[in-house]
Structures are given as structure tokens and as C-alpha cells.
Amino acid sequence: MMEESKLTRFQRRYLMDYVKRGDTLPLQCHPTSSKEPAPAFSPPVYQLSRLSAKPHLRPAKVCQAGDAYVREKFKPRARRDLENEKQRLQNILATGKDVVEHKVKQTQVQTKEEEIPEPDRFEELVNEVQERKDFLAEMEALGQGKKYRRILLTEISQKMREMEIIDKKRSEEMREIMTKDIPGGNKSDPHD
């Protein structure tokens, strides 16, 4: 094998010394001297082979000791009035100027909204019953009355029951008001 590899006599003798000692063969065999040359500069490939195969990971204790697992505390910021911001942006886009509206106008709008009375629940119920009757009539005209009749009649009866309860409460309130206004109340005198 040594003859086929075309080694010099020095290289053959060098390798045979290793074999006689029972050592492993060297990776490089220098051609002319018995001394191994000291490399003046090691190539980067040679440095890469010295790196360990394990990646350099930090232990869990080191990670937990740091600030990696600490959450930042929530710090609330001052809230902005979004409605005022919207109005301001609308004014800027409409007029090109940042115009501050007077608070007097806003208070007038608010008082107008307060003046609108709430619709009476009894009247709402009357309207809802009428809507259901109209819808049932339309469905019967289209031939779909059987589908909706039971549902709508049930809803109408529920609305009517609620209307009766409201009516009883109102009539009791009226009786109380009337008995308070009239001295002596409804007491009938048997001697009359």
C-alpha cells in the first residue's frame, strides 16, 4: 500500500515508527523533516473544527434569574374624550382650522334631548299588537298564515296580558289619588 501511494522513504519510515509503537497513524505526514512545522497562521477551517458540537445554551436558572420572565406592570394612561377628538377632527377637515366650539351649544342640545318624553309602555304594547295583527293578515293573504298564526297569537296574548297588568296598576294609582283628594273617602254612612 505504501508503494502504491508513492510515499518518500522518509514518510514510509515515519509511518512505520508509528505502526511499531502501536500508535494511531498521524493525519498528516510532512514530506522532508521529522519536525512538525508550527503553523504561523491557522486557517479558519481549522478553527471551526475545534468548536464543540454542542450549542452554547444558557441554563434555565440563568434565564429565570434574569428579567426575561418578569412582566411589565400595567400603567394606565390618561383617557381622552373620544367624542371631543372626533368633533375636533371634523372641524379641522371641514374648515381647515382647529375651531373650539362653545359649550353653550352643547348644553342646548342636551336639554333638547332631555325634553323628549319616554314613550308610554302601554302605547308601545298597543303598537306591537297592531304590527303583529298586520303581519298575520299579510301572511294569510300570501297563503302562509298557518305557519305564523300560532306564534303571533301567542305573542299578541302575551302583550295583552302585559297591557292588563299595566291597566290594573294605573287604575289602583288613580283610586289612591282620588281617595287622598276626597276627604272621608268612599265610606258610606248607614244613617243616611
UniProtKB/TrEMBL annotation:
Lineage top rank: taxon: Eukaryota
Region (Disordered): 172-192
Protein name per Swiss-Prot or TrEMBL: EVG1 protein
Species of the source: Balaeniceps rex (Shoebill)
